[in-house]
């Protein structure tokens, strides 16, 4: 049941990289939401392979079919099933690794756990599964947009190339205007060249994606185990190739004094309680405080490289693994919409959960039924 | 339902900092486990306040009572309820903040979410709740010990003071021999002095806890959303004051090339599949590969400081918050057993979940019933 | 995790019949609910042993302690833990069955499942656990009362003695005025004598409890698997000694034609959509339709009787089991508050779940945060 | 999230009666199970419409496509998605009820809950959804067959026509040899004529399905809330048109004395602990005891009849509803495979859950990893 995520806004994804199809069932989306298919397709297109020469050349239309849950253009409160057919599977690319364990892939661990594996393109462990998350995340974004919540991620680091400017000083919309998805055009160009050179050398490189969430009111998130940032962390860490997560001051916060780190409160002109600083990243005690939520997610370099590597086969015999197939030299440009989708799924769930947190709300609510 | 954690090894904690008691119900611990009360008390004592002058002077015996689930010294497969009475609550210390929002505490967010809050010592949001996690984690450790799994955490950073040595080059047992819980005696002494000076200035400081898990066989962890490192990340991020999590190469991995980062496989003298390096941190595709699992957790400085801070009250009026009460100037020494406990809870759950992953196991299993 | 119940209004019970205590943790009760301890005690007293000579003579005060989740007389949205100490455990009464399997008890099945068991008074399988459900159910009743929902159960059958009148033709309040909890005073007296004679013969007898829920608006309950009546059925069947559940027309409905069974709709004077008849028992498609909800629950005779019975011991050797201990000759009088409590827990959960079913509600809701 | 069922063997169904497709995702089926597509199709064919003149004439091939989770003819431990296209939707049959509430259908309650509904053939509330359950149940049956568990349901009652013989005295295999699925050929013929006459009168009739499960070892099922019979009850009550559930002695057990009802233990020739009688229906304390498990499920008459009925429309105005479309005059013949499927899903889940109930099992299990 580990392919199911969420408490109230629940999704269940399925599908292997080279099987007939992948898809997702969203169970728990409220009824009465306008279902914008163009927007969902737009989000899928942002994640789609083959967008530029620095992404995999695998060609997938990634067009989806709505199988259920939508009627007269509106969600019905019933499960929404979305299907994406796999069209460009060159399974023959993988015959050679049917018995080999590719270094830093999930080949060995799946074999150890299940006693077998669908080796074609990594099967279930392939990042292809994330297309289903992006589709479901797009529905969550539609639900959140009604509440005034916006989510914007961008590439802040590729290898050692970093964006130093704080997000407030950039026009994040610019991120969508280059192949790297970095809002600083100069650094974006450097990153593009760097990734392209890495690709030419048959190597891959890691990176970092930053994400900013605006418009979340105070009160979203749950105490103790399901803290908002804990759920965001799990969601990000569940994305292929992720190695780390931090929010607000993050690891740098460990070096600060309380007198430097604390966010003092004040009341703004509109009478709203605000904080002077935002080391908390918009979350205190696991619950949103109304400030911007921001977090960073670190991605390792893609494991598939076009170089020979030592490994062993399923019999434990030494083998040389030669890179084949079509892969991204750097995942972060395509990871941006995935990070946004997972953030949207977490926030949609927390938004719904918050509605049953207080009995006065319940009573008010009840009176309208 | 956010105070409940786990799929099969499930716990539910309860209690406020200054209420009559805190406790935990563990539902899903297998029957037939020898219940070692001394070990559980030992773990609680490691987390207990008042261990040295660099920890809070609140005095809590933290003695627990077993209310259910154990008979003839063995677990019965029924819920195990553990109760810890609160004994040293100086609630009067908190009367002054009944209407104030302490900076970077959860006062404001709980008020915003629930419309009220138990302000005494932070109520439910207090780290006192973690005593219940440590008690439950101790049971998980007993279950894991049978499988040869050991968990050892230690303080690797306080402010800017860092342990540079890799864990393999230190005797981690030394961590328990100093008040800071750092396995490098020299740095431990520097950290102690640094924390103590910070305390005297009425300030607080952050830090980092590293955790090493040995003896986990290949195959633990679940694909897609419940990846082993995703669950570890959520578990760590759910601990009070945590701002970041990374495993294996972590954020540093984002700067590497695939050719540097990949862990090549080989077969060792015992015919076991191993990796030459361990950038993966013992986890590939969310499933353990049999190597050591290691991860790092960043803690912010404690929010309570003995200095005046600007804030607002529940009416939005400006107030000056003055630090009172008894608090840790640095949480990481006491966080070590909490990190271990949460890791144990995640691994115990994954251990049980892995037992139903493969039908051949099921059949073998069945034959023994 | 089978001692946990509910999706949003979640409870976790613990405790054995002769252990130190039993209790429950309610996680998910909304904040801001006035916590009426007298009412909760009143509900526990209704279930309490020793109410008359036709109930077990075990003496339990069944007084509860609130350990968490309540502050200033109100729920805080945090887990509510309630503790009930066991005071009158005559464990010596059970020494003789330490190695015996009592017919139609859970002794053998627990032993087969877990390899051991707490044999004292049935341990975890004892109906004593239901006191924790009644305490949690009382909180659910407080939440439902705010919504105008009332739950009233009563004994409709003991052995072959049955109440023939439909519930609409009786004053259900009278049920609480006799020891049997039957609203028909004449039949109640017959039932009392019948149970008492059965008791004197050292035997036990079964019965049926009917339950009526009024004030539930249209829209509670979820499609497909979590239908309102499916959850009610599971809840009732989870009560000790229950053998059957039916709602609305029930088993009798299987003998009817659609033309007899269908409930035609009309609009009443207040413009509310109603049904002329109520074979549906207030539920259509698993969702409440605004009519009275009613269902029936069948209880087998108590397994413990004061007569010798053939059985085997843990070694498979034949033994004679002689009834000892203090037991109810008929469970239904004390089952009435348990049935009500379980119904309340199901309905409280469905009430909360319904609040996130529709996005328009969400938007309205949101505007108030 | 109410379209998701199961704790470890988890399924999520989707689809409306007249949407493009219905389907199911099974998440939690162990790896290494031989995937028998012919058997799954065979089970779907048993539920398929148009099998005889006493079932609906809607023509659906009910052929399924495997979208994921199966490789080289074996399950992979990853989600198994099955898709069934809807082919014969005469939506025009339903235009007339777009604004009408059909008596005893879910039209009104869905409208009240969600503010809108897919009225075509009942949308999500249609029994068409059960095809997805039958497909998932067939996988569960394959898993259970490995453990020697067999499930056989049959029609025991149509209207007032009842099978009086106990199941032990019939050849249950005969049930599949007639259109009614009753193992008593004579009564089957009477039932067929009775249903056919009812159909000709444009009416419908209810019935009862009995189910027998053999081969379940002692130990399956969980204490307290997830008792085996409680889960079976919920599963049966979740099937469209079900009004009641009883197991073992059921409602009749309420009329018995303990001395009549108790099942005395003995040790059989093979040294196995058995019971002389089986009033318990193979379940004691919610856990299987190794005897046959049997239970009965009552179905109301189909709500759609070919007669005029009074009702109201979405505006509350009185209307006359005239039966159209193609429907079963009696659901029980086609309900037989659905009852079996739901029983299989419950038992597969309990089988997996039982494997983590005892630490000795865990240790033995572990040694094989």
TrEMBL record, chains A, B, C, D:
EC number(s) recorded for this UniProt protein: 4.2.3.5
Biological process (GO), any one: aromatic amino acid family biosynthetic process
Sites where the protein binds FMN: 124-126, 240-241, 285, 300-304, 326
Listed SUPFAM superfamilies: Chorismate synthase, AroC
Pfam families noted in UniProt: Chorismate_synt
Known pathway: Metabolic intermediate biosynthesis; chorismate biosynthesis; chorismate from D-erythrose 4-phosphate and phosphoenolpyruvate: step 7/7
EC primary class: lyase
Residues annotated as binding NADP(+): 47, 53
Matches recorded under PANTHER family: CHORISMATE SYNTHASE
Family, similarity comment: Belongs to the chorismate synthase family.
Function: This reaction introduces a second double bond into the aromatic ring system.
Subunit structure: Homotetramer.
NCBIfam families: aroC, PRK05382.1
Protein name, entry field: Chorismate synthase
Species assigned in the record: Spirosoma validum
